[in-house]
């Protein structure tokens, strides 16, 4: 029974948030923050937290923390039953404590460490199907006042709203991830990758690529190694009239010089010593579709002339044959080299360069499109969670700051590798900065400067092993297992590399 008059302004806030819960499932963190902000304001709290229960380890983690020390609070976690919030979660009951120093359930460690004096706490459970999934906690009523039953009543309503928001978001997220995963699997089965990017720089280039895809003109993709040139080539093919026909990939740098002509154009039986059967080349396999020539700058000079003829006449002869084969192939080439410099140096044919460079597209490096980093990091985290069978929820603010401030000389490929390593060695709910083997680079990317290969390798080993040891509290047995080596070998490496705690 309500023993107080309901404030119409509070009721209006409640209705507004209720409408948001039922219409927006996409940005649950923003929605939950809005709920906590409203709850804090209506109960006149100085600070507040939304704490979620992790059923796997029975720990409580600060998902949202508002107030002057909110950022510091998020670094901590609680055991089930620990502190006022832990008691509320364990007993699934609300609690008003207006003098925390007299309550034995109060856990003062966090308050002391962050330098935020706590005098009173109002805490209520968030329930999904009568099970506690988290706790909303309000710290200190303003003006030295005491929390009362009206505050509790309002906070319990807001906790119910937060629980509904979490349940809706989890259901939506689960369905969304299943769809995304299925779509990813279908693309992977067909040999294509998921394109991730939202920065203006990358969206502008993608739009150019899609427009260029409608024609049959040759496209030259330029950019540093690891920026995603192959993904752009895929998008060009998928948005072209040739999308249902073959997409053939060729890494020119990976093919031996004595075999590259045969790989591209095929050969007849007896054309050379090992040619015991006739072979179709990549151009013949790509007939009607698209051929992607990666690292075109590494194509031998003698093969460049034959490629020029394919571009001009759409025809060629297999190695050892005089029979002309006609093909309908769209060429997309890519290089991370200064191709104009290669032309000037006489290592790349001028006429071929101009035939390939009809529609040049420069793909910016990752350091020039920082907006894509959180999106890519989240995508790789989800992928490696599935592959390694982990359930890491995300990145701490500090970890994301490391990702955003690092210059990524290896671009998206380096980011992917960094996230994979971090997932492997992380045992907590969130990835922390120590999980990234990037700190040495962040201090200045010259730690390998003027070092021999052996010295550089040892420097990397030292940094990598020290980080994994630190992540595992310097326990050598556990570290060796994660590194995939024997404990005795790890001990030897620690001595040899002079790794100290």
Q: Using the 3D structure, state the CATH architecture of the domain at 8-175.
A: 2-Layer Sandwich
Strand order of the largest sheet: 3-2-1-6-5-4
Return the CATH topology of the domain at 8-175.
Beta-Lactamase
CA radius of gyration is 30 Å
Low-pLDDT sequence parts: 439-445
Give the DSSP E fraction (strand runs of 2 or more residues): 15-25%
- Helix tally? 20
Total count of strands? 17
Structural description of this entry:
- The chain is of the alpha/beta class and 501 residues long.
- Among the domains are: 8-175, Beta-Lactamase (2-Layer Sandwich), CATH 3.30.450.40; 200-364, P-loop containing nucleotide triphosphate hydrolases (Rossmann fold), CATH 3.40.50.300.
- It is built from 20 helices and 17 strands.
- It has helices at residues 8-21, 28-42, 70-73, 83-91, 109-114, 149-189, 200-213, 229-238, 260-265, 282-285, 301-313, 339-344, 350-356, 372-388, 397-405, 411-425, 439-442, 453-471, 476-483, 487-496, and strands spanning 45-54, 59-66, 77-79, 95-97, 121-128, 131-141, 219-222, 247-251, 266-267, 279-280, 290-294, 315-317, 324-326, 330-335, 359-362, 394-395, 430-431.
- Strand 1 (45-54) and strand 2 (59-66) form a beta hairpin.
Features:
501 residues, single chain, Beta-Lactamase, Rossmann fold, 5-stranded parallel β-sheet
SSE layout and pairing:
Elements: H1 8-21, H2 28-42, E1 45-54, E2 59-66, H3 70-73, E3 77-79, H4 83-91, E4 95-97, H5 109-114, E5 121-128, E6 131-141, H6 149-189, H7 200-213, E7 219-222, H8 229-238, E8 247-251, H9 260-265, E9 266-267, E10 279-280, H10 282-285, E11 290-294, H11 301-313, E12 315-317, E13 324-326, E14 330-335, H12 339-344, H13 350-356, E15 359-362, H14 372-388, E16 394-395, H15 397-405, H16 411-425, E17 430-431, H17 439-442, H18 453-471, H19 476-483, H20 487-496
Parallel strand pairs: 7-14, 7-15, 8-11, 11-14, 16-17
Antiparallel strand pairs: 1-2, 1-6, 2-3, 4-5, 5-6, 9-10, 12-13
Helix pairs in contact: 1-2, 1-6, 2-6, 7-8, 11-13, 14-16, 18-19, 19-20
């Amino acid at each position: 029974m309500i023993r107080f008059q309901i404030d119409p302004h509070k009721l209006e806030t409640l209705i507004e948030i209720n409408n948001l819960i039922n219409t927006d499932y996409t940005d649950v963190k923003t929605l939950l923050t809005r709920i906590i902000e409203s709850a804090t304001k209506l109960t006149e709290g100085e600070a507040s937290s939304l704490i979620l229960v992790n059923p796997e380890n029975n720990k409580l983690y600060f998902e949202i923390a508002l107030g002057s020390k909110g950022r510091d609070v998020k670094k901590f976690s609680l055991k089930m039953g620990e502190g006022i919030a832990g008691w509320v979660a364990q007993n699934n009951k609300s609690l008003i404590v207006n003098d925390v120093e007299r309550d034995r359930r109060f856990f003062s460690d966090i308050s002391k460490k962050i330098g935020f004096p706590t005098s009173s706490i109002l805490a209520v459970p968030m329930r999904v199907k009568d099970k506690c999934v988290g706790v909303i906690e309000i710290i200190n009523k303003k003006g030295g006042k005491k929390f009362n039953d009206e505050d509790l009543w309002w906070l319990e309503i807001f906790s119910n709203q937060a629980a509904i928001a979490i349940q809706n978001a989890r259901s939506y997220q689960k369905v969304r991830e299943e769809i995304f995963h299925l779509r990813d699997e279908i693309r992977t089965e067909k040999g294509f990758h998921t394109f991730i990017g939202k920065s203006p720089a990358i969206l502008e280039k993608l739009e150019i690529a899609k427009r260029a895809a409608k024609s049959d003109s040759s496209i030259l993709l330029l950019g540093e190694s690891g920026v995603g040139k192959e993904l752009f080539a895929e998008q060009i093919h998928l948005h072209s009239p040739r999308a249902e026909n073959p997409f053939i990939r060729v890494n020119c740098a990976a093919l031996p010089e004595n075999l590259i002509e045969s790989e591209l154009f095929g050969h007849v039986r007896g054309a050379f010593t090992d040619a015991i059967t006739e072979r179709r080349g990549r151009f013949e396999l790509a007939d009607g579709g698209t051929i992607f020539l990666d690292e075109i700058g590494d194509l031998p000079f003698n093969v460049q002339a034959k490629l020029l003829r394919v571009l001009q006449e759409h025809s060629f002869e297999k190695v050892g044959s005089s029979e002309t084969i006609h093909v309908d192939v769209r060429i997309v080439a890519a290089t991370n080299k200064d191709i104009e410099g290669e032309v000037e140096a006489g290592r790349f044919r001028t006429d071929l360069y101009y035939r390939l460079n009809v529609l040049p597209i420069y793909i910016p490096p990752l350091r020039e499109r920082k907006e894509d980093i959180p999106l890519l990091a989240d995508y790789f985290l989800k992928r490696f969670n599935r592959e390694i069978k982990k359930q890491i929820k995300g990145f701490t603010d500090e970890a994301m700051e490391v990702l955003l401030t690092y210059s990524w000389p290896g671009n998206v490929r380096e980011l992917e590798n960094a996230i994979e390593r971090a997932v492997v060695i992380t045992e907590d709910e969130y990835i922390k900065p120590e999980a990234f083997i990037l700190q040495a680079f962040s201090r200045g990317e010259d730690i390998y400067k003027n070092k021999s290969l052996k010295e550089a390798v040892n420097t990397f080993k030292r940094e990598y092993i020290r980080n994994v040891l630190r992540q595992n509290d310097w326990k050598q047995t556990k570290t060796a297992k994660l590194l995939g080596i024997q404990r005795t070998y790890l001990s030897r490496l620690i001595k040899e590399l002079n790794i100290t705690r």
